[in-house]
Amino acid sequence: MNVDDLKVYQDSMQIAERIWKEIMGWNYFAKDTVGKQLVRCADSIAANISEGFGRYHFAENRKFCYYSRGSLNETLTFIHKAKDRNLIEESVAYDLSQQLITLRKRLNAYIRSIGPTTGNSPS
Fold it and tell me: Sign of dihedral through CA atoms 53, 54, 56, 57?
């Protein structure tokens, strides 16, 4: 299995590319402030999934997925800032936010799937 086979990775790459395309139309000041930060945190979601996947150790993979989840939440924050500053339309902000919320659920499921299960207690 390759990281490219993971749906959570594929979705995070797609969202980051969508954000990149959205920001390319902004003016210099907006790109240089909110835009750069938004691209960095959106790109960091997939980058951390990939880095954790490449570590080949369950605990390290989980740790990088936690970083990815933090970057996802940061991305949501900057999308809200961009909307509040009239850099993106409300409908675009809503759609991106919904995609990220779905991605967060998928990421949480992936984190739970990493490594052997511990304990024998019923769920």
Answer: negative
Residue 120, domain member (yes or no): no
- Cβ atoms of 11 and 106 closer than 8 Å: yes
CATH number of the domain within which 90 lies:
1.20.1440.60
Token output for 51 = 């880095």
pLDDT in tens, 10-44: 999 999 999 999 999 999 999 999 999 999 999 99
Q: Of 39, 2, 47, 49, nearest to 17 (Cα)?
A: 39
Query: What average pLDDT is seen over the chain?
Result: 94
Q: With respect to residue 118, please indicate whether it lies within any of the assigned structural domains.
A: no
Question: φ and ψ at 9, to 5 degrees?
Answer: -70, -45
